Amino acid sequence: xxxxxxxxxxxxxxxxxxERYSGSLKMLDNPTSQIPSHRAKxxxxxxxTVRHCKPRVLMASSVHPWNDxxxxxxxxxxxxxxxxxxxxxxxxxxxxxxxxxxxxxxxLPANGLRPGDRKSIIFRLKRIGMxxxxxxxxxxxxxxxxxxxxxxxxxxxxxRGKKVIYDIHEDNPSYILEKYWITxxxxxxxxxxxxxxxxxxxxxLNFLLTAGPxxxxxxxxxxxKTEVIHNFxxxxxxxxxxxxxEKQNEVCFIGGITRIRGLMEVLQALEKVNSVTLNLxxxxxxxxxxxxxxxxxxxxxxxx
Length: 304
Description:
By secondary structure, this protein is of the alpha/beta class. The protein has helices at residues 7-22, 69-79, 118-137, 151-159, 172-176, 184-204, 213-219, 263-270, 287-294, and strands spanning 32-34, 49-51, 56-65, 84-90, 103-108, 142-145, 163-168, 207-210, 226-228, 250-254, 277-281, 302-303.
């Protein structure tokens, strides 16, 4: 029998996520529990031991690779401690999926094309279609999606009576204004139309997760069931044997290497200092952008 997932269960879901990030929660690996004794004719005073009916979470991203830090390492692995997780995400070039029996991963094809390319758009539409099919056919209790283009999928899951969580990584209307591959005259109208659609759908969903407090301020006016899950690393990841006075003057950039994230300004700043180096950890948005970055004088102080 499929368990009904209440709003209280979703709140516990969020609480466990937040506690997991702070390192304060020790997840139980044993999925069995003792249920209070039930008296029935012929059964005596036995306590019945049964296996939990864990909620089934369908998590999806049509943009992020399966090994994305927030999607997989933070969210999916944490949720898998108390729920059955099926993750639909993009294949990561040169990386095979780990043998983690707790998480079932369905890979979407990667294209390797620059954003805005016609073939890239077709690829993304195909991936959205594959996720929509899963939303219609898969068995799950909670649908947790990470991309704004999956708002129709969230709405569809809601129509199916599922609990839906929208994980908001960016201020998407503002992000649209920075998309260089959209004609400037169209950016503002597209941004406003998308803002209306996003707000309308978000208002109807069960929970919203945001990556920062500013996003929460915006969305909690639309839907009070909004929580912040920061992209902070776990405390155990800071364990180091290197003393502070032995560390080098290094700056680390971790994430997608894209035009709108201020990397060119950082390279210009590196040109004005002598004792600082920059460590880049991430993937380039395009080969052309990588070559453009290499043209800066500050690139001599970059380690990739």
